[in-house]
Amino acid sequence: MAQTKYIFVTGGVVSSLGKGIISASIGKLLQARGYNITIQKFDPYINIDPGTLNPYEHGECYVTVDGMETDLDLGHYERFTGIQTTKANSMTTGRIYKSVIDKERRGDYLGKTIQVVPHITDEIKRSIQYLGKEYHYDFVITEIGGTIGDIESAPFLEAIRQLRWEMGRNAINVHLTYVPYLKAAGELKTKPTQHSVKELQSVGIQPDILVLRTEKHLTDSMRMKVASFCNVDLECVVQSEDMPSIYEVPVSMQQQGLDAAILRKLDIPVGETPALGPWKNYLERRKNATKEVKIGLVGKYDLQDAYKSIRESLLHAGVYNDRKTVITYINSEYITKENVEEMLSGQDGILICPGFGNRGIEGKIIAAQYTREHDIPTFGICLGMQMMVIEFARNVLKYDDANSSEMDKDTTHNVIDIMEEQKNISNMGGTMRLGAYGCRLQQGSRTAAIYGKDLIQERHRHRYEFNNTFIEEYEANGMMCVGRNPDTDLVEIVEIPGLKWYIGTQFHPEYQSTVLKPHPLFLDFIKTTIENKKKELTE
């Protein structure tokens, strides 16, 4: 296609309706038709990025290959479509305003009074169109965070209004709303949707397509009512019911003709409906996987969104091993030497989670000791890997005060330490080792066998590193440093070859696991836990 088409996804009534899942599903369906797509997220909060946000505020912080800390919805985009997002796929009010203020300070505006319209809205428009102009995508899907009516989203909606006016048939709006079920009355109510559309119309945007989030099936007469009250074609009123898995949403959207309606609205021939073979195969395997594999996530957050990518990676790996992954959150703050056996009991494998700060780390160390000494398959990610390293130093190398200099700056055995070039940094945002870095794997190691190659690239998000001064002692005592950065020699992976599966990675492999390409480390971890469980049952 000569001209890039733009799809704007907005939400009304309440937040958390699943705009990210709908955006990812639209991307997946257009991709299946052979189109080249990208998806971007515009968040109305004033933070520059979600890197300094507590996961309780926004869930996990997702990291792109080029080292941008972004919203977790970018994880959905990548897992659904297999595309690689970059810093250009994520934008916040903070970044928009900072860019405008920087230009003003440089004198770019030649003494003009800087205003929300046109200066802020022009910057938003420029950012929205950047990827389309730079890479000539067929479709750019732009999800606007927040809810219609929020004071923060007003400049974004004004920018969309202007773009739709300028682009004519090359831009459409997909609006996601909620149809609540009132139990006492036994009725579904469309009034909130009508109000939401009215709110959108009041800022000059008429939605082209409505996606109605509902817990109960909507009748055709109800869809007709919404269509007539909201000035939307009936075929463009689609329902998004609760599904057993988010990965069933693209199939449901395709069955209702969402992708076909989008193409018609944009004056593009609809053509044949794609089969979605590999995707449906994944869903079929997921449905048939009834045997369970139980994984305990040892971390400090009792919140599934805090470990979203890890959770999804474990679920993907379970499906490809024909198992249903059952995940239990084990709060590391409450783990003690006395209760560790009880808290980890019943789990086939343990994953020690990433994180920042002091809270809950002693519990992670106790968990790492217990799983090492009882040979329970264990996977440590980022801070989780560092806790495995500290535990080994304390209990095998007998350095009682071993620690990370992040947690105890006076430790004499700083087995985890800060990089020299990071030592003078006082600013918390975006100052870590972020994004994709190379890693050379040691031949003959378990990890090299899992990857099936010598050189890999994985994404990072951390400030502290394994202290290479101690490498010889670790390796002499059985913990091998089997992955190193080829440029800096920093340790990226540790493993204990004498155990069934005891591997820690300084990077975050979960950021690269997708529905159709699950990550090899997660696949092998689940496979080993299943084999181990079978062995235990036969003994």
What this model shows, in words?
With 539 residues, the protein is α/β, with parallel strands linked by helices. 37% of the residues lie in helices and 21% in strands. The protein contains 18 helices and 23 strands. The strands form 5 sheets. A 9-stranded mixed sheet has the order 13-12-14-15-23-22-21-18-19, sandwiched between helices. Strands 5-2-6-1-7-10-11 form a 7-stranded parallel sheet, with helices on both faces. Strand 12 (292-299), helix 12 (308-320) and strand 13 (324-331) form a beta-alpha-beta unit. Helix 4 packs across helix 5. It is globular and about 70 Å long. The termini are far apart. The mean pLDDT is 93.
Quick overview of this protein structure:
Helix content is 37%, strand content 21%. It has 18 helices and 23 strands.
Give the tags.
539 residues, alpha/beta, 9-stranded mixed β-sheet, 7-stranded parallel β-sheet, 18 helices
Give me the secondary-structure topology.
Elements (H helix, E strand, L loop, with lengths): L4 E7 L7 H14 L4 E7 L11 H4 L3 E2 L5 E2 L2 H9 L8 E3 H14 L9 H20 L3 E6 L9 H14 L3 E8 L2 E2 L4 E2 L2 H12 L6 E6 L5 H11 L6 E5 L7 H7 L2 H8 L11 H12 L3 E8 L8 H13 L3 E8 L8 H5 L4 E4 L8 H13 L4 E4 L1 H13 L7 E2 L9 E5 L14 E9 L4 H6 L3 E8 L1 E3 L4 H6 L3 E5 L6 E5 L6 E4 L14 H19 L1
Parallel strand pairs: 1-6, 1-7, 2-5, 2-6, 7-10, 10-11, 12-13, 12-14, 14-15, 15-23, 16-17
Antiparallel strand pairs: 3-4, 8-9, 17-20, 18-19, 18-21, 21-22, 22-23
